[in-house]
Amino acid sequence: MSSEGAARPPATVGVPREMGSGERRVALVPKVVERLRAKGVEVVVESGAGLGALIPDELYTAAGATIGDPWSAEVVVKVNPPTTEEIGRLRSGATLIGFLAPRTSPETITALREAGVLAFAVEAIPRISRAQSMDALSSQANVAGYKAVLLAADRSTRFFPMLTTAAGTVKPATALVLGVGVAGLQALATAKRLGARTTGYDVRPEVADQVRSLGAQWLDLGIDAAGEGGYARELTEDERSQQQKRLEEAITGFDVVITTALVPGRKAPTLVTAAAVEGMRPGSVVVDLAGEAGGNCELTEPGEVVVKHDVTIASPLNLPATMPEHASELYARNVSALLELMLDEDGALAPNWDDEVLAKSCVTRSEGEEA
Q1: Which of 186, 1, 27 has the alpha carbon at shortest distance from 99?
Q2: Catalytic one among 105, 132, 133, 241?
Q3: How many other β-carbons are positioned within 10 Å of the β-carbon of residue 229?
Q4: pLDDT exceeding 90 applies to what percent of the chain?
Q5: pLDDT at residue 3 in the model
Q6: Which of 1, 120, 195, 340 is the most buried (most CB within 10 A)?
Q7: Model confidence over 230-274: pLDDT tens digits?
């Protein structure tokens, strides 16, 4: 143990291979490894960790990383929550950074605490201006919103743009996005680029200007459910009833509906009822991005593509993993920004607990001690 006042050695960071089914992202990419190495940080990457994102081991070694056992590192960075086996491989006193699902997987947080792991959940990072570079929820939501529109266009029986041909003019498709956070705004922007007539809806009326800035119309249902931290609060029973009735009437006029609405720690709200689907034109498409939380559409089957009343309902899970190259690049920048906040000028791990970002994103410290 070093004497009091002695400088601590630079941190070591481990990057394991993600083992989840269908997961192709990696927590750090070579460009970010180079940045950390410039600060003196040692990086150990598990062999094959980047293959899903088309990054061979050779690119990591060229960036200054070592190929080896990432679990012995002082800091381990991941994309998905660790399995029980992976938690067992973390050394006591290690630091873990990643998506940890603290609201929905309390058993994981308990296991990490009992293992003596200092854990930081990227989804718990406060949504403040200073932390924008660390906002992994937003970076990955951008990927999901973009890909959702491509899926809708692929499943649709109609063109998105207006086409004028020798055979006549084809009207543009109409697209409605329900829930206009980061994923919803990206969906609106992408659908607009493809030529669709776009409309956005959210229970937070303050985002109406953002919707209009993308060239989309705002669907006003007269409900205001703005909550804390940029999220919507849960609706009252009366508000929910009003919303469903008015949405049912509106949804039937659209060719494509993309839903992104989530309430942290709760089941996703139902926005598209079975009656609304039945009222849509045959050949229409619903893409439900809230499938992992139960779905926004009453007829959603999470992870599946189904056809109900001649309407296609797709509920893809983990869309960012289907675009692993850019999703990994964005996530790696988020992780490195958070990690660099914990380092001192010599690259040693020295988190400042007076820092709001670190204090709020830390979900475990040690056994018996609340973060």
Answers
A1: 27
A2: 132
A3: 8
A4: 84
A5: 45
A6: 120
A7: 566 677 788 778 878 889 999 999 999 999 998 877 889 999 999
Catalytic residue among 113, 135, 155, 284: 135
- Catalytic residue at 366? no
Q: In the sheet where 118-121 sits, what is the strand order?
A: 66-67, 42-45, 12-15, 75-77, 95-98, 118-121, 362-364
Residue 231: the pLDDT is 60
Residue 64 CA from chain centroid, whole number: 29
328 tagged catalytic: no
Residue for token digits 């973390």? 90
The confidence band for 6, taking pLDDT boundaries of 50, 70 and 90, is low
CA distances from residue 130 to 65, 127, 133, 351 in whole angstroms, order as listed: 29, 8, 8, 16
Check residue 230 and give its pLDDT.
57
Q: Are 244 and 275 in contact (CB under 8 A)?
A: no
Is residue 243 among the annotated active site residues? Answer: no
**Catalytic annotation, pick one of 8, 127, 130, 266:** 127
Distance from CA of residue 158 to its chain's centroid? 29
**Is the overall model pTM greater than 0.85, yes or no?**
yes
| Catalytic option among 25, 113, 138, 336 | 138
Give me the mean pLDDT over the 284-303 stretch.
96
**Contact indicator for 78, 27 with CB cutoff of 8 Å:** yes
224 in active site? no
What the chain holds in terms of domains, given with CATH numbers, is 12-135+324-364 (3.40.50.720), 142-321 (3.40.50.720)
Q: Is 153 exposed, middle or buried (0-12, 13-18, 19+ CB in 10 A)?
A: buried
